[in-house]
Amino acid sequence: MKVALISANLGNFDPIVQHTPQVLPPGVELTTKVWTDQNFPPRHCSLTSRLQARIPKMFGWEMLPDYDCYIWVDASCTLLHPESVAWFLEQLGNADIAVFKHPDRISIQDEYEFLQRKLEEGNKYLVMRYENELLHEQYIAIKRDPSYMDDKLYASTAFIYKNTETIRLMLREWWVHTSRYHSIDQLAFPYVLWKSGCFVNVINEDYRKCLHIIYTRNKQ
What we know:
Elements: E1 2-9, E2 29-36, H1 49-63, E3 69-73, E4 77-79, H2 84-92, E5 97-101, H3 108-120, H4 124-130, H5 135-143, E6 154-162, H6 165-180, H7 189-196, E7 200-203, E8 213-215
Parallel strand pairs: 1-2, 1-3, 5-7
Antiparallel strand pairs: 3-6, 4-8, 5-6
């Protein structure tokens, strides 16, 4: 089995922190790829670095093709344990994708209301990054689907997926939402997963307290 561990660190938002060397299960080959400003130059005329980083996040299977599984880890985190890749593969099992539950909120509506409130309050972090994004329009577009039950929210920080046609179509749809409406990608994540029919395994842990990854942003 060929596994790609992928990430993107564009705009120098995060320190470069190496993953802990991995002890792999028998038969597993691992390749690590990080897209940076050097190997994926800034597209200043069309994209912010935040939106550009979503391209390898959602098209890693296309940019680094022919792997059986992909593990995405945001540049704000790093793998902490020597058996983290093996652990992610266990979480995936026979599903199409394995994702962490969101640690703080439980639905798209909760996330939408949280973001809307913070933006209205003038939260500096969110306003500086996401002012004038089409948050309300995105929420209405999802809410308009009467067959969708809004009872899930996932953290998009780290996840593992198989390289299948169903997953590839889901990731393309995720990009459509992220570029069309709002570059905070986790708002649409549960909806596009549900719409695609992907078999999802939920990791019922807080990724911020998980043994296998650690948050490294603002740490040297």
